[in-house]
Structure to design on (145 residues):
C-alpha cells in the first residue's frame, strides 16, 4: 500500500484570548468548525485540538484492536473506545501530558485476561499511540462487555 496523506487546516483570527478559529478537513467532514480559547481552556461548548486528538486516538485504537483480535481468530461484534486527552500548564506554557484509553470489547470465546493482553498488543501497533509515545503517557484500561 502506498503512503497516505490526510490534510486538515485551521485559521485563527484575533488575539489568542478573544479571537476565534475554524478547523476544516480536506474530506469535508469538518468544515469551518469553530474553536476558541474558551472552548479549549474554559470548558465552553465547542471543540478544541485536544478533543480532536482524543477522537483520532479512540478511532485509531478501536481499529488496531479489531485488527489484532481478527489476526488472532476473534471476531468482535463491537469495540468501543473512549480517549481522554489531558493538557496541563507547564513552564509558562501548555503540554499534552496524558492520554487515557478505555476500551470495551463485545465478543465471545475469549476470557478477560486474553482480551486484556491482546488490547495491550494493539496499543503497541496503533499509529496514533506510536505518534504520541515518548512525549505523552498512554494508559489503557480494557474490559469485556
Amino acid at each position: 500500500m502506498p503512503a497516505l496523506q490526510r490534510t486538515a487546516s485551521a485559521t485563527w483570527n484575533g488575539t489568542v484570548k478573544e479571537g476565534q478559529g475554524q478547523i476544516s478537513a480536506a474530506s469535508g467532514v469538518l468544515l469551518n468548525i469553530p474553536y476558541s480559547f474558551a472552548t479549549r481552556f474554559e470548558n465552553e461548548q465547542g471543540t478544541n485540538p485536544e478533543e480532536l486528538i482524543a477522537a483520532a486516538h479512540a478511532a485509531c485504537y478501536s481499529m488496531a484492536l479489531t485488527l489484532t483480535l481478527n489476526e488472532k481468530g476473534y471476531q468482535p461484534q463491537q469495540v468501543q473506545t473512549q480517549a481522554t486527552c489531558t493538557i496541563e500548564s507547564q513552564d509558562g506554557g501548555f503540554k499534552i501530558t496524558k492520554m487515557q484509553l478505555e476500551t470495551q470489547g463485545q465478543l465471545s470465546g475469549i476470557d478477560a485476561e486474553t482480551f486484556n493482553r491482546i488490547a495491550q498488543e494493539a496499543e503497541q501497533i496503533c499509529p496514533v499511540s506510536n505518534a504520541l509515545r515518548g512525549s505523552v503517557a498512554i494508559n489503557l484500561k480494557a474490559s469485556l462487555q
